Structure formats: structure tokens, C-alpha cells
Amino acid sequence: MSNVESSGAAAQQAIFDKLGISTHKSAEERATSDELGQDDFLKLMTAQLQNQDPFAPMENGDFIAQMAQFSTVSGIEEINQNFESLAAEMKQTRIATTANFLGQSVLVPGSMARPDDNGEIHGVFELPQAASASRVSFTDASTGELLHSEDLGPQGTGLAGFSWTEIPSELRDGNRKIKVEVSANTGKGMETMGPSIYARVLSTSSFGDQSDTATLDVEDYGTIDASTISRIR
After folding, report:
1. All domains in the chain, ordered by first residue
2. Torsion-angle region of residue 37: left (phi > 0), alpha (psi -120 to 50) or beta?
């Protein structure tokens, strides 16, 4: 009887070797594993074939169905592992990419501005339709004092840019917040338009293992999801 069992075990091992499946697990691996691997499945399948009723053997269709089911599960597990690896790589890439934002200015919706390293303020506003006239004003955010204004003239539909490049030296240190107000006439008189301002990125971060969100700490605007940024200068 022992010779028969040895012969069966040898044949089974030959099948595993041919498929390139290792059946040698450490005691620790056997104690902690709670999943059915390829070698476990094939052992069960081989035992099932060896112990089936010779007068009522397993139907070919049943055998193929079991193999197909295991192959599907195995394939899904492999796909999941690949997705996890891809997600980890994407997270590292995202963090590395956001680090490039440091010291740059990104476009954010808002009206608070400070002169950049070149002593300039830049921004945009969006028009739902063409305007016959447009104007931008810069005021002291604390006192309301008008610091500068400029007529931008007629503008077409869509984004229109503005800038203040000749800022007085006493305002260039960035210590004073400057409020930007934009107005345009699209046929109903001069109306206020919501501007977007280029603001300086102070730091970047990524939250824990449970989130792949990379964020930017933007001056005067706080924490912003990096994925929402569309323009940088």
C-alpha cells in the first residue's frame, strides 16, 4: 500500500514540477496562510481524481469547469496585484510631480493677490460672451485704498488675461494683500467677474496610505487638491 501511495505522490509531484509550481512551504508559511494557492488546488484536484468512484467518474465538463473557475480566480488575483503595484507607482510619481510645484505660482479661483518674485501680479477671468469693455482694479485688501486700475478694452468669449507689472517698490515685498476686482460689459452694463489669480505654492504633501491625494499649500488660499490645478507659471 505504501508503494502505491509513494507512486501516486511521485506522479503528483511530477505534475507540479512540470507546471513550475513549488510545493515546499515553510512551517511558518503553512501556519499563517489562509488562502488556497495553485499547489493546494492541484493537490485537491489530484486527490479528487484518485479517490473518485471508478463506476461514476467525474464528468469531463465538471473537471474543466473547476479548472476554469480556479484559473479565473487566479487571474483576478494577479490583476489585483498588478493594479496595487500600479497604484503605488502612480502615487510616487504624483508626489514627485507635485514637488515640482514648490516655488512656482498656480492659477486658483479668488481675488487675493501678492506680487510674485518678479514684482508682478497675473491672473485671468472668463467671459460667458464677448464684452464691449472690461476693467481690472487693484485695491489694498485691508484699507480698500485703490492702488491701480486698468482698462482692458473689448474682450472675446472665454478666458482673458490681465497683469500689473509696474508695481511700486513699496508694494513688492508681498506683505500687503491686494484685492483684484474685474468688471466687464457683456450687454447689461459693467458687471463684476470672478477672477483667478496666480498664487505662490508654499509646500506640497500626500496623506497616508489610504489616500493617493496630493495637495498644495497655496499662499492666501490654503490647501488645494493638486489635481484641480490647470495652469502654472
Report:
1. 2-99 (no CATH), 105-228 (2.60.40.4070)
2. beta
